[in-house]
Amino acid sequence: MNPKGEPDLKRALSLLPAFERAVRETSKRLAEAKIRHLLVGALGANAYRSRPRTTSDISFLVGDEAFESHPGGFVTMRLPIIEMDGIEVDQVPLTGALRVVEKALDAPRMSDGVPIAPVETIVVMKLLAGRHQDLADIEAILDAGVDRDLLRHAVGAAVPDRVEMLEGLIENVDRRRD
User: Fold this and answer.
1) How far is the C-alpha of 125 from the C-alpha of 119, rounded, in Å?
2) Residue ranges covered by each domain of the chain
């Protein structure tokens, strides 16, 4: 993370240079289709970590306008991008618990022309997923020096039942530093 806490696309992609064109082209196509979107997942987290990690896919959180409903409850993607340059692309819909991060789609953090989810959105999404790698990503973000009060406030407002989990991750990072 840079000193101002802004996301850094070049850092996010530093271990995965082949992903850069795929990220940029997917983002461009989503923007042309007027689909709100944010880079999330491992690459979104990498934009805030000191040491990026590898991944096998690209994930974009997308607004409801990314999908079309059809009779009988059938839903399709308006822009069916499922891979770019041989790399899997996930369009993550705002379903269920993810509704708490919807407002982030209207205030993206731009880096080199690509909208990246704010750090608090990345952390909330990863706390909701709760997988081991998601929690490790949060610890790496915390270790990079992110504003902890910002995260506490965001988590408390969006998913208050996950505040204790965040505090445990903060304690883990602090314990390793001692």
Assistant:
1) 10
2) 9-177
Please give the distance of CA 135 from its chain centroid, rounded to a whole number.
13
DSSP output for the chain: --TT----HHHHTTT-TTHHHHHHHHHHHHHHTT--EEEEHHHHHHTT-SS----SEEEEEE-GGGEEEEGGGEEEESS---EETTEEEEEE---GGGGGGGGGGGSPEEETTEEE--HHHHHHHHHHH--HHHHHHHHHHHHTT--HHHHHHHHHHH-GGGHHHHHHHHHHHHHHH-
Average pLDDT over residues 67-75: 91
What does pLDDT average to over the chain? 92
Q: Taking the model in full, what pTM does it have?
A: 0.89
